[in-house]
Amino acid sequence: MNFFGHATVAAWSPSATPAFVLGAMLPDFASISGARSARAAHEETSRGVTLHHATDAVFHAAPDFVALTTLARGHLESGGVARGPAWAAAHVGVELLIDGTLVTDDGACQLYLRALQDADACVACGRDDAPRLARFLARARDSGVPYGYADPRFVAARVERALSSRSRLALRSRHVEVLAAVLAGVAADVPARARSLLIDVRRGLSAMALGPGGEPEATR
Prior knowledge:
The chain is an all-alpha fold and 220 residues long. The chain has helices at residues 3-11, 18-33, 43-59, 63-78, 83-100, 106-117, 130-143, 152-163, 173-187, 190-207, and strands at 39-40, 123-124. It contains ten helices and two strands; from the N terminus they run H-H-E-H-H-H-H-E-H-H-H-H. It is globular.
């Protein structure tokens, strides 16, 4: 699940705070920005990080996510994309398209924006990583809610950029158009699949005795 999806899951909790929502996104922020030392500096943010990992465990095993990524990967390989880049592009591309179905949730959007604004007080990281994280957060604040994730062509460009620094996973320039076409082809199935997938995530978190608020069910 990509970071906006994590924000949405965190926002399911009636007691969700911006600090908690930030924690649910923090591992993704650390990975994307390269600020690997980034860590929670607030109790609510720490709970959000716990929710992040639990959510990913359920999300990535969900039948609807597996079906969408398998379909996209197969079409990419048929279009000449090598196995490694096809796997990565399908995985990230489907995650972003799913996020694109969630940006209509006004409550999640507001918590997402507030989490970005409050991030500096809730996160700590090493001296070398601080500028990386600051640059990423500044870009995220400037970009606002990622409405572009509803557009397969926008998503394809974002995936190409995300993979460009990974030599074994980077897409060749001619394959960006292939990816855009593949994502456009699967996009019609994404809304229904996303609804079913989020039901699985709720059930999975409950089965792990972890509610959407990130706290053990017995204490909720």
